[in-house]
Amino acid sequence: MRKVFIFLGIFFFLLAGSSQTMASDVLTLEESVDIALERSLAVLSADEEIKAKEFEESSAKADFYPKLSTSYTYTYLDKDTVDDAKHTTWLFNPSTGLHVPRELSPLRTDNYQFNITATQPLFTGWRLTVLRDLASLGVDTAKIQKVSTIQDLVLKVKAAYFAILKTEKLQNVARQAVEQLEGHLAVAQAFYDEGIIAKNELLQTEVQMAQSRQDLISATHGVLLSKSLFNKLLRRGLTKPVRIKDILDYTPVRLRLDEAVEKAVLNRSEIQEVSLNVVAAEKNVKLTKSSYYPSVTFIGNYSRDTDELFLSAVTAEDPDIWTLTLQADWTLWEWGKRRDEVAASRARVAKARHLLNEIKDNIHLEVQAAYLSLKEAERNIQVSKTAVVQAEENYRMNEERYKQQVA
Questions:
Q1: Distance CA 200, CA 194 (A)
Q2: How does residue 86 score in pLDDT terms, banded at 50, 70 and 90?
Q3: What is the DSSP string of 57-108?
Q4: Integer Rg of the chain from CA
Q5: DSSP state of 290
Q6: Whole-angstrom Cα distance, residue 234 to residue 231?
Q7: Element at 114 (helix H, strand E)
Q8: How confident is the model at residue 302 (pLDDT cuts 50, 70, 90)?
Q9: Among candidates 292, 272, 283, which has minimal Cα distance to 346?
Q10: What is the pLDDT of residues 89-143, one digit of tens each?
Q11: Which residues are CB-neighbours of 64 under 8 A, at least 6 positions away?
Q12: Residue 183 main-chain phi, psi, to 5 deg
């Protein structure tokens, strides 16, 4: 007897666990969206794009700081070159005001040279500043693109969620139609057997029955396809069973069309992204104009030149040389090249502004179409409720007539 109680206890425990598992498998709309966002490859790609743009911004900022480079070279001169080289130079003597010859030390066969150079840009015509600003805009654009990716995914998940509910409802309607026509076919067969209706009427009922079964098959396929799409968005197996919670609540939208348009213009990520593109195009004009100005660079250099591999000084001359250089570069004439580049940049600014206005117009139209569809759906809800009541009453009356005729 004790074993029986133990067995029953284990059985009910497993049954309760199974029930909890089945209940937990029922997904709500919010849970579906969270799972999709957590597993989405598109969202992960958007995150990586943000990281890439942030590294590019950091790289652009690094151009403001000094750059340090080094080099080590070895040069071999053959003996004839060393012997034939001129070893005399003329130096200015400030005490006499005359140039006097000076004998240089002989050239070496082996020459080792080590260099360290530090370069600091002082003025670039605001080129580095604009490049930094463009990199910062790239980060902002990547973040907006991530928001757009998230919004698109949420919309797709919600559409797939409600598509499942819709197709399941259509499947239920098709199943009910089959059940009703099965009863109707049984009544028609009884009428035909009693000679009340002709063969043609029975055949019509059989055709309707066959069509309703075909509709049920199509509705079932629609459910399977909608669930496969839902699983794909959640990155689950396409054939994994799907159970979602039905949403029966309906709350009318209290929003005027002009308010909806205003919200869309303020919040749509497409407008925000293209607005940043306009700013970036304006920055590119300034970047192109930077070539009108000279660039000024400060260069510091240290070099050591010896005939020894490890740079040990073995001659009387000082092998170390220090130089400080202030270098200015300025391109004065390029046959109108820079003028044309600036004009092209300004044309791209105008193009970006036209695109922004076009997107605003398209969004205005989309909002209006969605608003009208929403209002139409609200009216259809009431019409459908009335139609359901009427259809149920018609079915009840027709069923009563058939039963009376059979009797």
A1: 15
A2: low
A3: HHHHHHTTS-EEEEEEEEEE--HHHHHHS--EEEEEETTTTEEEEEEPPPP-
A4: 42
A5: G
A6: 5
A7: strand 110-123
A8: very high
A9: 283
A10: 555 555 445 555 554 455 677 888 899 999 999 999 999 999 999 999 999 999 9
A11: 121, 128, 132
A12: -65, -40
pLDDT per residue as tens digits for the range 192-225: 887 877 888 889 889 999 999 999 999 999 999 9
Cα-based angle 22, 28, 29 (whole degrees, multiple of 5): 155
The pair of structure tokens assigned to 372 is 């009208």
Whole-angstrom Cα distance, residue 265 to residue 274?
12
Among candidate residues 291, 317, 287, the one with its CA nearest the CA of residue 304: 317
Q: How many CB atoms lie within 10 A of CB 212?
A: 21
* Strand pairing category for 243-244 and 26-27: parallel
Neighbours of 167 (CB within 10 A): 19
**What count of other Cβ atoms lies within 10 Å of the Cβ of residue 389?**
10
Q: Which residues pair with 304 in a beta bridge?
A: 114, 320
Q: In what order do the strands lie in the sheet with 110-123?
A: 67-76, 110-123, 295-306, 320-329
Judge contact between 310 and 130, C-beta under 8 A. Answer: no
> Residue 406 to residues 128, 199, 217, 402: CA-CA distances in angstroms?
94, 16, 32, 6
Is the pLDDT reported for residue 357 higher than 50?
yes
The Cα–Cα gap between 117 and 321 comes to 12
Q: Is 335 left (phi over 0), alpha (psi -120 to 50) or beta?
A: left
Alpha-carbon distance 367 to 275, whole Å? 19
Dihedral Cα 137, 138, 140, 142, nearest 10 deg: 160
Structure tokens at 194: 């009693």
Spatial distance between the Cα atoms of 23 and 72, rounded to a whole number of angstroms: 73
Neighbour tally for 181: CB within 10 Å: 19
Q: Which residues partner with 80 through β-bridges?
A: none
Report yes or no on whether pTM surpasses 0.90: no
> What's the CA gap between 120 and 292, in Å, rounded?
20
